[in-house]
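Researcher: For the record, we're logging two predictions in this thread. I'll number them. Prediction 1 follows.
Model: Prediction 1, sequence and structure:
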Amino acid sequence: QPFNGYYVRILGDELQQQVGNAIRVGENRSLFSENGLVLSANGTILAVSHARHPRDDYNELWITPLFEVDIYRLDPSTATWRSMGNITLQGSTQDDDFGMALAMNDEGTLLAVGAPSDETSSIKAGRVATFQWDDEAGQWLPFADLLGEADSAFGSSVALLPSGNQLLVGAPQNDMNGEDSGQAFLYTVVGV
């Protein structure tokens, strides 16, 4: 049976040796034009975004993609990438570009996910969802949602300081200083 997905391989040191196994991202998933990929500072936690294309077999059509983020942790004893938590993080609506931008703190315990086409607050306003790893629960828990203004594409880029205490979000189509002049927003993260 053909595999309709893709593989992610992590290469290390100057010899470009593969670190861990190749990660097979599930069936009916594909890279999209601006997919996100982020690796923790120590190289043991990886987040990768992809588009899942549900199929309407009755009409033989691919349905508008749903964007998702999977997180993996490298098991040092077996050199194998394993799912970190048992859920896949998903966008709030189809076609919201959830995961187009990803950022992670150095420890790999705080994740920011940009969804610049999200329409939760307004048309193409954008959203950044943050998640924090709960070691006791073994899950990624929602931490905070930040919403952009109409037509700003808020969340097109995201960056976290190494400690995770500050988050920078880009909104390239924000009109505050003229049409599509763009704006960057800096947030202080409390409670990390």
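Researcher: Logged. Prediction 2.
Model: Prediction 2, sequence and structure:
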Amino acid sequence: MNLRQAKKIVNQDTPPETDPKSKIWWHRYKKANMHIGKLYRNKLNKQRKEGKKFLSSDEINHLIKDIIGEEFN
């Protein structure tokens, strides 16, 4: 799964709880969220190793754009 697929799954409308396919959908949703979280954690850990420990909101937004940029290039 790549970032584009994960974002597409996360941004889909959630099915109703009574839908028999909802279990499959939730499994894909959780898997996509874990993938995005893993990329984000890896990037944060890399920055911590470089000595940068505290991030402002602008830096977090920049970090997210970097992750998306790396995945699409």
